[in-house]
Design brief:
Elements (H helix, E strand, L loop, with lengths): L14 E7 L5 E10 L5 E7 L2 H12 L10 H11 L6 H18 L12 H10 L3 H20 L26 H10 L2 H13 L3 H5 L6 E2 L2 E5 L6 E5 L1 E2 L2 E2 L1 H16 L17 H21 L3 H9 L5 H7 L4 H8 L4 H8 L11
Antiparallel strand pairs: 1-2, 2-3, 4-5, 5-6, 7-8
Helix pairs in contact: 2-3, 3-5, 4-5, 6-10, 7-9, 7-12, 10-11, 12-13, 13-14
Protein backbone atom coordinates (compact mmCIF):
# COMPACT_ATOMS: atom_id res chain seq x y z
CA UNK A 1 0.00 0.00 0.00
CA UNK A 2 1.31 3.45 -0.93
CA UNK A 3 2.17 5.55 2.11
CA UNK A 4 0.13 8.75 2.44
CA UNK A 5 2.00 12.02 2.30
CA UNK A 6 2.28 13.92 5.55
CA UNK A 7 3.22 17.28 4.00
CA UNK A 8 0.52 19.95 3.68
CA UNK A 9 -1.95 17.93 5.75
CA UNK A 10 -2.90 21.13 7.60
CA UNK A 11 -3.79 22.93 4.37
CA UNK A 12 -7.01 22.89 2.34
CA UNK A 13 -7.19 20.45 -0.59
CA UNK A 14 -5.02 21.41 -3.57
CA UNK A 15 -3.02 23.96 -1.59
CA UNK A 16 0.76 23.42 -1.51
CA UNK A 17 3.36 24.90 0.81
CA UNK A 18 6.87 25.57 -0.53
CA UNK A 19 9.76 26.47 1.75
CA UNK A 20 13.28 27.55 0.96
CA UNK A 21 16.23 28.54 3.14
CA UNK A 22 17.74 31.90 2.36
CA UNK A 23 21.44 32.71 2.57
CA UNK A 24 20.86 34.74 5.71
CA UNK A 25 19.49 31.70 7.51
CA UNK A 26 15.85 32.65 7.39
CA UNK A 27 13.20 30.46 5.78
CA UNK A 28 10.97 31.64 2.96
CA UNK A 29 7.48 30.18 2.74
CA UNK A 30 5.12 30.42 -0.20
CA UNK A 31 1.74 28.90 -0.97
CA UNK A 32 0.46 27.63 -4.32
CA UNK A 33 -2.79 26.31 -5.75
CA UNK A 34 -2.43 22.91 -7.40
CA UNK A 35 -4.67 23.55 -10.40
CA UNK A 36 -5.06 22.98 -14.13
CA UNK A 37 -4.66 25.30 -17.07
CA UNK A 38 -7.05 25.60 -20.02
CA UNK A 39 -5.47 22.53 -21.65
CA UNK A 40 -5.85 20.41 -18.54
CA UNK A 41 -2.16 20.50 -17.66
CA UNK A 42 -1.12 20.75 -14.02
CA UNK A 43 -0.06 24.22 -12.97
CA UNK A 44 0.89 25.74 -9.63
CA UNK A 45 -0.73 29.15 -9.15
CA UNK A 46 1.05 31.42 -6.63
CA UNK A 47 -1.10 32.38 -3.62
CA UNK A 48 1.43 34.51 -1.74
CA UNK A 49 3.31 34.05 1.50
CA UNK A 50 0.57 34.98 4.00
CA UNK A 51 -1.49 31.93 4.96
CA UNK A 52 -4.75 33.84 5.59
CA UNK A 53 -4.50 35.69 2.29
CA UNK A 54 -3.51 32.46 0.55
CA UNK A 55 -6.65 30.73 1.86
CA UNK A 56 -8.81 33.57 0.55
CA UNK A 57 -7.28 33.29 -2.91
CA UNK A 58 -7.49 29.47 -2.70
CA UNK A 59 -11.21 29.70 -1.95
CA UNK A 60 -11.75 31.93 -4.97
CA UNK A 61 -9.91 29.49 -7.22
CA UNK A 62 -11.58 26.47 -5.66
CA UNK A 63 -15.00 28.13 -5.96
CA UNK A 64 -15.79 27.74 -2.29
CA UNK A 65 -16.88 30.15 0.42
CA UNK A 66 -14.08 32.48 1.36
CA UNK A 67 -12.90 31.78 4.91
CA UNK A 68 -12.42 34.79 7.11
CA UNK A 69 -8.86 35.44 8.30
CA UNK A 70 -8.17 33.86 11.68
CA UNK A 71 -7.15 37.15 13.27
CA UNK A 72 -10.53 38.85 12.72
CA UNK A 73 -13.61 38.84 14.97
CA UNK A 74 -15.74 37.52 12.10
CA UNK A 75 -13.77 34.28 12.18
CA UNK A 76 -14.39 33.92 15.92
CA UNK A 77 -18.11 34.63 15.43
CA UNK A 78 -18.33 32.02 12.65
CA UNK A 79 -16.48 29.35 14.62
CA UNK A 80 -18.51 29.94 17.79
CA UNK A 81 -21.81 29.83 15.91
CA UNK A 82 -20.81 26.63 14.13
CA UNK A 83 -19.07 24.72 16.93
CA UNK A 84 -20.61 25.86 20.22
CA UNK A 85 -24.11 27.26 19.79
CA UNK A 86 -25.60 24.00 18.37
CA UNK A 87 -24.58 22.23 21.62
CA UNK A 88 -26.62 24.58 23.81
CA UNK A 89 -30.26 24.38 24.87
CA UNK A 90 -32.82 25.84 22.44
CA UNK A 91 -33.61 28.87 24.60
CA UNK A 92 -29.93 29.66 25.08
CA UNK A 93 -29.28 29.19 21.37
CA UNK A 94 -31.98 31.71 20.51
CA UNK A 95 -30.66 34.26 23.00
CA UNK A 96 -27.03 33.85 21.89
CA UNK A 97 -27.89 34.12 18.20
CA UNK A 98 -29.75 37.34 18.92
CA UNK A 99 -26.70 38.73 20.71
CA UNK A 100 -24.38 37.47 17.99
CA UNK A 101 -26.33 39.33 15.30
CA UNK A 102 -25.89 42.56 17.25
CA UNK A 103 -22.18 41.98 17.79
CA UNK A 104 -21.62 41.24 14.09
CA UNK A 105 -23.11 44.60 13.12
CA UNK A 106 -20.42 46.39 15.12
CA UNK A 107 -17.34 44.18 14.95
CA UNK A 108 -17.82 42.34 11.65
CA UNK A 109 -19.13 45.06 9.37
CA UNK A 110 -17.43 47.07 6.64
CA UNK A 111 -14.27 47.31 8.75
CA UNK A 112 -13.88 43.96 10.55
CA UNK A 113 -12.16 44.26 13.92
CA UNK A 114 -9.01 42.22 14.65
CA UNK A 115 -9.36 39.95 17.67
CA UNK A 116 -6.24 41.35 19.31
CA UNK A 117 -7.58 44.89 18.92
CA UNK A 118 -10.42 44.10 21.31
CA UNK A 119 -9.41 45.85 24.52
CA UNK A 120 -11.43 46.66 27.66
CA UNK A 121 -11.66 50.24 26.39
CA UNK A 122 -13.20 49.14 23.08
CA UNK A 123 -15.77 46.93 24.81
CA UNK A 124 -16.56 49.70 27.30
CA UNK A 125 -17.27 52.03 24.38
CA UNK A 126 -19.62 49.40 22.94
CA UNK A 127 -21.36 49.09 26.32
CA UNK A 128 -21.87 52.84 26.63
CA UNK A 129 -23.07 53.24 23.04
CA UNK A 130 -25.81 50.58 23.34
CA UNK A 131 -29.19 52.05 24.21
CA UNK A 132 -30.49 48.65 25.36
CA UNK A 133 -28.45 48.52 28.55
CA UNK A 134 -29.56 45.09 29.78
CA UNK A 135 -28.98 43.53 26.35
CA UNK A 136 -25.52 45.14 26.33
CA UNK A 137 -24.68 43.21 29.50
CA UNK A 138 -25.79 39.95 27.90
CA UNK A 139 -23.76 40.66 24.77
CA UNK A 140 -20.62 41.43 26.77
CA UNK A 141 -21.11 38.18 28.69
CA UNK A 142 -21.37 36.38 25.34
CA UNK A 143 -18.20 38.09 24.14
CA UNK A 144 -16.42 36.96 27.29
CA UNK A 145 -17.43 33.36 26.63
CA UNK A 146 -16.26 33.58 23.02
CA UNK A 147 -12.87 34.96 24.03
CA UNK A 148 -12.38 31.94 26.29
CA UNK A 149 -12.91 29.69 23.27
CA UNK A 150 -10.72 31.94 21.11
CA UNK A 151 -7.80 31.24 23.45
CA UNK A 152 -8.49 27.50 23.35
CA UNK A 153 -8.68 27.52 19.54
CA UNK A 154 -5.44 29.45 19.20
CA UNK A 155 -7.05 32.52 17.64
CA UNK A 156 -5.46 34.74 20.29
CA UNK A 157 -3.15 34.50 23.26
CA UNK A 158 -4.25 37.75 24.89
CA UNK A 159 -6.13 37.90 28.19
CA UNK A 160 -9.91 38.05 28.06
CA UNK A 161 -10.66 41.79 27.65
CA UNK A 162 -14.10 41.40 29.28
CA UNK A 163 -12.73 40.38 32.68
CA UNK A 164 -13.27 43.03 35.33
CA UNK A 165 -15.29 45.24 33.00
CA UNK A 166 -18.09 47.15 34.69
CA UNK A 167 -21.60 46.18 33.62
CA UNK A 168 -24.65 48.40 33.28
CA UNK A 169 -26.81 48.55 36.36
CA UNK A 170 -29.84 46.30 36.14
CA UNK A 171 -33.04 46.81 38.12
CA UNK A 172 -34.95 43.58 38.73
CA UNK A 173 -38.58 43.53 37.62
CA UNK A 174 -40.76 44.31 40.64
CA UNK A 175 -44.30 43.80 39.32
CA UNK A 176 -46.51 41.99 41.80
CA UNK A 177 -49.88 40.58 40.79
CA UNK A 178 -52.22 40.94 43.74
CA UNK A 179 -55.54 39.18 44.08
CA UNK A 180 -57.50 41.85 42.17
CA UNK A 181 -55.20 41.65 39.14
CA UNK A 182 -54.96 37.84 39.29
CA UNK A 183 -58.75 37.42 39.53
CA UNK A 184 -59.38 39.88 36.70
CA UNK A 185 -57.31 37.80 34.26
CA UNK A 186 -58.39 34.45 35.73
CA UNK A 187 -62.07 35.27 35.17
CA UNK A 188 -61.44 35.93 31.46
CA UNK A 189 -59.32 32.81 30.95
CA UNK A 190 -60.48 29.53 29.47
CA UNK A 191 -60.14 26.33 31.50
CA UNK A 192 -56.85 25.38 29.83
CA UNK A 193 -55.25 28.72 30.73
CA UNK A 194 -56.66 28.55 34.25
CA UNK A 195 -55.05 25.14 34.67
CA UNK A 196 -51.71 26.54 33.53
CA UNK A 197 -52.01 29.51 35.89
CA UNK A 198 -52.93 27.30 38.87
CA UNK A 199 -50.11 24.83 38.23
CA UNK A 200 -47.59 27.65 37.76
CA UNK A 201 -48.66 29.28 41.03
CA UNK A 202 -48.86 26.13 43.14
CA UNK A 203 -45.48 24.83 41.96
CA UNK A 204 -43.65 28.16 41.52
CA UNK A 205 -42.01 26.88 38.34
CA UNK A 206 -41.10 28.55 35.05
CA UNK A 207 -43.58 28.46 32.14
CA UNK A 208 -41.54 25.88 30.19
CA UNK A 209 -41.43 23.53 33.20
CA UNK A 210 -45.16 23.97 33.81
CA UNK A 211 -46.02 23.05 30.23
CA UNK A 212 -43.93 19.87 30.27
CA UNK A 213 -45.34 18.54 33.57
CA UNK A 214 -46.68 15.03 33.06
CA UNK A 215 -48.65 12.32 34.84
CA UNK A 216 -45.45 10.28 34.82
CA UNK A 217 -43.93 12.93 37.12
CA UNK A 218 -46.32 11.89 39.91
CA UNK A 219 -44.46 9.45 42.12
CA UNK A 220 -44.84 8.30 45.74
CA UNK A 221 -46.72 11.39 46.89
CA UNK A 222 -44.55 13.90 45.01
CA UNK A 223 -44.63 15.89 41.79
CA UNK A 224 -41.16 15.40 40.33
CA UNK A 225 -39.71 18.50 38.63
CA UNK A 226 -36.57 18.76 36.51
CA UNK A 227 -35.99 22.44 35.84
CA UNK A 228 -34.99 22.94 32.23
CA UNK A 229 -32.96 26.12 32.78
CA UNK A 230 -30.82 25.07 35.75
CA UNK A 231 -31.33 21.28 35.66
CA UNK A 232 -32.24 21.48 39.35
CA UNK A 233 -34.36 18.55 40.51
CA UNK A 234 -37.21 19.03 42.97
CA UNK A 235 -39.85 16.84 44.62
CA UNK A 236 -42.91 18.90 45.47
CA UNK A 237 -45.05 17.36 48.21
CA UNK A 238 -48.61 16.37 47.38
CA UNK A 239 -49.45 15.53 51.01
CA UNK A 240 -48.81 17.34 54.28
CA UNK A 241 -48.92 14.43 56.65
CA UNK A 242 -52.28 12.78 56.00
CA UNK A 243 -53.77 15.90 54.40
CA UNK A 244 -53.75 16.75 50.71
CA UNK A 245 -51.97 19.94 49.71
CA UNK A 246 -53.72 22.44 47.43
CA UNK A 247 -51.47 21.16 44.64
CA UNK A 248 -52.74 17.62 45.19
CA UNK A 249 -56.37 18.79 45.17
CA UNK A 250 -55.77 20.69 41.93
CA UNK A 251 -54.08 17.73 40.20
CA UNK A 252 -56.81 15.31 41.28
CA UNK A 253 -59.47 17.65 39.91
CA UNK A 254 -57.51 18.06 36.70
CA UNK A 255 -57.17 14.30 36.26
CA UNK A 256 -60.92 13.80 36.84
CA UNK A 257 -61.73 16.35 34.13
CA UNK A 258 -59.27 14.68 31.76
CA UNK A 259 -61.04 11.32 32.21
CA UNK A 260 -64.43 12.92 31.51
CA UNK A 261 -63.06 14.64 28.39
CA UNK A 262 -61.38 11.45 27.15
CA UNK A 263 -57.91 13.02 27.09
CA UNK A 264 -55.26 10.31 26.76
CA UNK A 265 -51.97 12.23 26.61
CA UNK A 266 -49.82 12.12 29.73
CA UNK A 267 -49.10 15.88 29.66
CA UNK A 268 -51.02 17.69 32.39
CA UNK A 269 -51.63 21.02 30.63
CA UNK A 270 -53.51 20.54 27.36
CA UNK A 271 -55.81 22.59 25.17
CA UNK A 272 -59.53 21.87 24.71
CA UNK A 273 -58.73 19.31 22.01
CA UNK A 274 -56.56 17.32 24.41
CA UNK A 275 -53.30 18.30 22.71
CA UNK A 276 -50.21 19.42 24.58
CA UNK A 277 -50.24 23.18 25.04
CA UNK A 278 -47.27 24.81 23.37
CA UNK A 279 -45.68 28.04 24.55
CA UNK A 280 -47.25 29.91 21.62
CA UNK A 281 -50.67 28.57 22.55
CA UNK A 282 -50.12 29.71 26.12
CA UNK A 283 -48.95 33.14 24.99
CA UNK A 284 -51.96 33.64 22.69
CA UNK A 285 -54.45 32.59 25.37
CA UNK A 286 -52.73 34.76 27.95
CA UNK A 287 -52.72 37.87 25.74
CA UNK A 288 -56.39 37.38 24.90
CA UNK A 289 -57.49 36.93 28.53
CA UNK A 290 -55.36 39.86 29.72
CA UNK A 291 -56.73 42.16 26.99
CA UNK A 292 -60.30 41.22 27.87
CA UNK A 293 -59.64 41.90 31.56
CA UNK A 294 -58.02 45.26 30.84
CA UNK A 295 -60.82 46.28 28.47
CA UNK A 296 -63.42 45.39 31.09
CA UNK A 297 -61.62 47.49 33.72
CA UNK A 298 -61.33 50.43 31.32
CA UNK A 299 -65.03 50.15 30.40
CA UNK A 300 -65.87 50.33 34.10
CA UNK A 301 -63.89 53.56 34.31
CA UNK A 302 -60.85 52.19 36.17
CA UNK A 303 -58.07 53.11 33.74
CA UNK A 304 -55.41 52.67 36.42
CA UNK A 305 -56.40 49.05 36.96
CA UNK A 306 -56.56 48.48 33.21
CA UNK A 307 -53.01 49.79 32.83
CA UNK A 308 -51.75 47.57 35.66
CA UNK A 309 -53.48 44.49 34.23
CA UNK A 310 -51.72 45.01 30.88
CA UNK A 311 -48.39 44.90 32.74
CA UNK A 312 -49.15 41.43 34.13
CA UNK A 313 -47.09 38.72 32.41
CA UNK A 314 -47.36 34.95 32.84
CA UNK A 315 -43.79 34.88 34.12
CA UNK A 316 -44.91 37.09 37.05
CA UNK A 317 -46.74 34.08 38.49
CA UNK A 318 -43.47 32.51 39.63
CA UNK A 319 -42.42 35.52 41.76
CA UNK A 320 -46.01 35.82 42.99
CA UNK A 321 -45.67 32.31 44.38
CA UNK A 322 -42.27 33.12 45.87
CA UNK A 323 -43.62 36.30 47.45
CA UNK A 324 -46.64 34.71 49.08
CA UNK A 325 -44.72 31.99 50.94
CA UNK A 326 -43.98 33.53 54.33
CA UNK A 327 -40.84 31.49 55.03
CA UNK A 328 -38.07 32.76 52.71
CA UNK A 329 -36.22 29.47 53.09
CA UNK A 330 -39.22 27.46 51.88
CA UNK A 331 -39.81 29.92 49.04
CA UNK A 332 -36.20 29.62 47.91
CA UNK A 333 -36.37 25.82 47.96
CA UNK A 334 -39.60 25.72 45.95
CA UNK A 335 -38.18 28.05 43.31
CA UNK A 336 -35.06 25.90 43.09
CA UNK A 337 -32.58 28.62 44.08
CA UNK A 338 -29.18 27.65 45.44
CA UNK A 339 -29.13 30.72 47.70
CA UNK A 340 -31.82 32.79 49.40
CA UNK A 341 -30.22 36.01 48.10
CA UNK A 342 -31.60 35.40 44.60
CA UNK A 343 -35.07 34.85 46.04
CA UNK A 344 -34.87 38.06 48.06
CA UNK A 345 -33.43 40.19 45.28
CA UNK A 346 -35.56 39.13 42.32
CA UNK A 347 -38.56 37.07 43.45
CA UNK A 348 -39.76 38.61 46.72
CA UNK A 349 -41.94 41.42 45.45
CA UNK A 350 -43.90 42.24 48.60
CA UNK A 351 -42.67 44.15 51.60
CA UNK A 352 -41.93 42.85 55.07
CA UNK A 353 -44.93 42.38 57.34
CA UNK A 354 -44.91 45.03 60.10
CA UNK A 355 -47.28 46.38 62.72
CA UNK A 356 -48.84 49.86 62.48
CA UNK A 357 -47.93 52.64 64.88
CA UNK A 358 -51.10 51.96 66.85
Amino acid sequence: MRQKKTANRDLPPRMIRRTRKRKGGTTWTGYYYNGRDADGNRVEIPLGGDLDEAKIEWARLDRKAIPKPAHLMGRLFDDYEKKVIPTLKPGTQSDYLKGLRQLRQVFDGDKPAPIDAMTPQVIAQYRDARTAKVRANREIALLSTMFTFAREWGLTDKANPCFGLRRNKETPRDFYAGDIIWNAVYEQAGQDLRDAMDLAYLTGQRPADVLKASITDLNHGFLMVGQGKTEKRLRIRLYDGDNETDLCVFINGLLDRRVQAGIKTSILITNHAGLRMSYNMLRNRWDEARDKAATKAATNGDTGLAKTIRMFQFRDIRPKAGSEIEDIKEASRLLGHSTEDMTKKVYRRVGEIVKPTK
